[in-house]
Predict the structure.
Amino acid sequence: MDAAPPADDARWLPLRTLGAGSAAVPLEDLDPYRDLGEPLPPARLDADEATAWQRMFDRAVAILAAADTTRPGRLDPAVIRSVVPWARTGLLPPPPPEVRVSASSGDAYGAMIISRPSEPLALAEALVHEFQHSKLAALLHLFPLVRDDRAERYYAPWRPDPRHLTGLLHGAYAFTGVAGFWRDRMSEPEHAGTAAYHFALRRTQSRLVVRTLLNSGRLSRTGHALVSGLARTLDAWLREPVPPAALARARTAAALHRTEWRLRNVAAPVRSGPGRHPVPSDDGTGHLRLRPDRTTWPDLRTHVLAAPPARPRTPDEHLAAGDPATALDGYAEGLERQPGDPHLLAGWIVARAALRPGPEARRTLARPELLLRVAGPRVTASRAADVPNRG
């Protein structure tokens, strides 16, 4: 076999790699599908960007270092088959601290597309997250885990849109690993503050999805065994103590996402005719009736609530600071300008529930779309406050 051309040959594009201890992980910057869309022509990372990737990867590997890599959330980076940098070929504009894009394919085990963040902690989390997807994809190739009709009708706490059962299973498996990742970080002084919040949030969200899967009646015997194992892990983690302030912010973030998701995705009950009972938010089989006009929306709050702000200004930041009264006023003012805005209305509902806990608050959190049924899509905070709650 002929030797490879020298590295300075213009006709030759040598494979870049990221060092991971004694192993080398390909940095596949020539992948034609690196933009999650149509195939792209080759466009190499420039030298500075490649160096930035190696520096970031080195620090992420140091975060992931652990003697036992078999526990949930642990990862030996040497088992990664390739990292594909999403879209970027240069250092400008500067990357955000969190990972904005990451993805993997069931047909490419251990390969992952990631947009480079500016913080190694975010990269380490993304590596764990995507490898969880790869492991589950491999299991799905080997065993039938779920009887999925592919109907997208289930709530996923990390998505803006309804999901099918396979997507729900992927999310539960991936975010159980992410919860384990943050659980490990709680013992590290430099990460403990935000780690407690993310651990509390992801364990709660993952357990909710696991319950949905177990109650679906559509898991195979193997799938039921897998999801039951996730349930046992998460139930044990839910008994572990978390600092009260971090736990409160995590519960608030979970409530905000679910409330806004229902306002944006679930059809409000409507009356079928004069004097008749309203058509409920489900179709009679336990499946939600979804709005025909739903659109995607950004989850702006998960990161806002990760840490209490020193000088809160927005209603979301006041919630993060543990001040629901000021947050409620801010949401009410916003709703006067933008009646029925789902983001503001979700915040108003959650802040009001924090100030007035009880059965009525629980019913509104469970089915926030009921406010739209009575007050209409242009509901404001003042009108919503007078709406009778008709569970």
Summary: The longest strand covers residues 16-20. The chain is about 45% helix and 5% strand. The mean pLDDT is 88.
